[in-house]
Amino acid sequence: MTRFWNAGRNADAVFAISLLVAVLALAVLVPLFWPVDPIRGQITATFKPPMSVVGGQLHPLGTDQLGRDLLARLGLGTAISLGIVLFASIIAVVLGTLLGMIAGYYGGWLDAVIMRAVDIQLAIPFILLILLIVAVVGPSMLNLIVVLGVTGWAIFARVARARTLEVRDLEYIDASRAIGLSDFAVLLRHVLPNIAGSQIVLVTLDLPRLVILEASVGFLGLGVQPPTPTLGNLIGEGRSFILLANWLVLYPGLVIGCLVVGCNLLGDWLVRRADRRGATA
C-alpha cells in the first residue's frame, strides 16, 4: 500500500483516483444530504451566481433559468449519468466477453460470423448509430442504457477473442477437457480468469467514451428527458444562457472533464502496470 502511494511512481494513478473519488462524492453525498429539491425551482431566484443566498438558502453553484439550485441538480445529474454509464458498461463487457470467448474457443463459422459482426459494428460511427436507435425506440433512461451497452460490445469481443486464442491450446486446458470438463466449465474456470485482467483494463479505457456519448446524447435532447438532470442535458439547457450565466455550462463540463481525465489516466496506469508485470514475468 505504501508503494502505491509513492508519488514518483504512481502520480497518475493517485491523481486519477482523486478525480474519480471527488466525482463519486458529488454523486453520492449531494443527493443524500443537500436539502434542496433539484426539480422544483423558485422564480425569484433565477440566474443567481455562485455563492448567492436567496431566502436564507445558500446556492454554492448558483441557480438556473428556473431558479433551481445547480448544486442539487449537478449532484443528481452526475449520479444518473454515472448509473447509465456503469450499467451500459456492464452490458457491453458481459456481451462482448461472452461472444469473444465463444469465437476464440470454438473458431470456425462461429468465429467468422461474430468477427464480421464486430467489423460491421466498428465501421459505423457510434454516435450516429446511437442517435438513430434512440430516435427510433424513443428517449428514456432504460433505452439509453441498452443502446450504449449493445453498441459498445465489439471492442471487448475482439480483445476477449485474442486472449482466448492464446490460452485455448495450453496444456492445462487440454487436460481439463481430457478429464471430462464441459466446454462451459472450461470457459468459466480457466479461460475467463485468464482474460479478466485485460477486460478490466479495457473497461477503464472505454468508460470515457461512454461518458462522452451519454453526455452528447443528453445534450442533443435524446437522452433522459428534463426536468430530470443528467450531465449532458444540463449543458444542453445551459448553452442558451452561456453569456448570461456561464456557470450553468462550466460546472457540468468540469465534472465530465474530471471523469474522462480520471478514467484515462487510471487506464493508462493499469496498462503500464500490466506491461511491467509481463516484462518481469
Description:
72% of the residues lie in helices and 2% in strands. A hairpin with a 2-residue loop joins strand 1 and strand 2. Helix 1 packs across helix 10 and helix 2 runs parallel beside helix 6. The protein has 281 residues and is mainly α. The mean pLDDT is 88. The chain is built from 10 helices and 2 strands. It has a two-stranded antiparallel sheet with strand order 1-2. The two termini are 21 Å apart.
The pLDDT mean sits at 88
Please bin the fraction of helical residues.
over 70%
| Cross-sheet strand order for the largest sheet | 1-2
- The outline comes out as elongated
Distance between the termini: 21 Å
**Beta-strand fraction estimate:** under 5%
SSE order? HEEHHHHHHHHH
Please describe the biggest sheet, giving its number of strands, its sense, and whether it closes into a barrel: 2 strands, antiparallel
Overall number of strands: 2
Outline:
With 281 residues, the protein is an all-alpha fold. It has helices at 7-33, 70-106, 108-123, 126-137, 141-150, 154-167, 171-178, 183-219, 231-238, 247-280, and strands at 52-54, 57-59.
Protein topology:
Layout: H1 7-33, E1 52-54, E2 57-59, H2 70-106, H3 108-123, H4 126-137, H5 141-150, H6 154-167, H7 171-178, H8 183-219, H9 231-238, H10 247-280
Antiparallel strand pairs: 1-2
Spell out the key features of this protein:
10 helices; two-stranded antiparallel ribbon; 281 residues; single chain; 2% strand; mainly alpha; 72% helix
